[in-house]
Design a protein that fits this description.
about 120 residues, about 75% helix, single chain, mainly alpha
Length: about 120
């Protein structure tokens, strides 16, 4: 069921095209797609499907350069990791929290919230 967060956006089609929306978007925005798809792949491999709709929405919001898009998505994901790790710790799910924290530290080592969580293991 969680994979639906990945599959639903991928299957979405624009009324004016027979291709799924994100295929057309990627063709029209190749530099932005080069930012988006590695992030989507990483999240899917980690089974963090719940973050995927936010990433797609940010990518589709327009008006950002690829570098700005990367920066915004990184900030959003770092904040989401911090929130999720904190929630898991409060729920006593320490093993899962530690795994997610190690991913967050690897991906966003300079994010203040990630640094704070890493110090308070």
């Amino acid at each position: 069921a969680d994979a639906y967060f990945l599959l639903a956006p991928l299957e979405f089609s624009d009324q004016d095209s027979s291709d799924p929306y994100w295929i057309d978007w990627s063709k029209q925005n190749p530099n932005h797609a080069a930012v988006l798809w590695p992030i989507i792949q990483r999240l899917a491999e980690r089974e963090l499907y719940i973050f995927i709709p936010m990433v797609f929405a940010t990518a589709d919001s327009g008006g950002k350069s690829p570098a700005e898009l990367q920066k915004v998505i990184d900030a959003q994901l770092a904040a989401e990791y911090v929130s999720l790790v904190s929630d898991l710790r409060e729920a006593g799910k320490m093993t899962v929290a530690a795994t997610l924290l190690s991913e967050a530290v690897a991906d966003y080592p300079n994010h203040p919230g990630v640094q704070r969580l890493a110090k308070n293991k």
